[in-house]
Amino acid sequence: MTAGERIELVVLAVSGLILGIMTAAFLGIYVGGVPLPVTAVIAGAVNVVLYVLAASLTASAWQFAPLGAWTLVTVLAMLPLFGNGSLIGDWRLLLLLACGLGIPAYYASTRRLKAITSGASDRP
């Protein structure tokens, strides 16, 4: 892994942090009186893109760095760190975690399974 690839991986991890902040901040969007957690779906899609980009740089566990950064921010958003309560504390948090981690985990596992069964390498 070259120095340029390491820098790209750090940029992807910072992108995961920013995505976590944005998805947690805009999770409470309401349309009329109905909550619309569209950021959960956006988090899942963008996390897959971040994972694919990171996996193209390395085959090590560092390919999950953007997902780890996103998860860190999301978990911090559910803790009562600032003030009396958490930023997120209802069913939308579970949906955000399910989509933001479930979709990339499913993609990574099926990609890895295809690579194992076809005998190809894990790198795209």
Structure description:
- The chain is mainly α and 124 residues long.
- It has one domain (3-118).
- Helix content is 69%, strand content 3%.
- It has four helices and two strands, in the order αββααα.
- The chain has helices spanning 3-25, 38-57, 65-78, 91-118; strands at 30-31, 34-35.
- The chain has a two-stranded antiparallel ribbon.
- Helix 1 packs parallel to helix 3 and helix 2 packs antiparallel against helix 3.
- The longest helix is centred in the last third of the chain and has 28 residues, at 91-118.
- It is globular and about 50 Å long.
- The protein starts with a helix and ends in a 6-residue tail after the last helix.
- The mean pLDDT is 88.
Structural domain count: 1
What's the SSE pattern?
Answer: HEEHHH
- Biggest pleated-sheet summary: 2 strands, antiparallel
The tally of helices reads 4
| Arrangement of strands in the largest sheet | 1-2
- What class do helices, strands and sheet pairing give? mainly alpha
Roughly what fraction of the amino acids lie in strands? under 5%
Poorly predicted runs: none
Give the strand tally: 2
Mean pLDDT over the full residue set: 88
Distance between the termini: 15 Å
Radius of gyration: 16 Å
Estimated helix fraction: 55-70%
Transmembrane segments: 7-30, 36-57, 64-83, 89-108
Protein name: Integral membrane protein
Keywords: Membrane, Transmembrane, Transmembrane helix
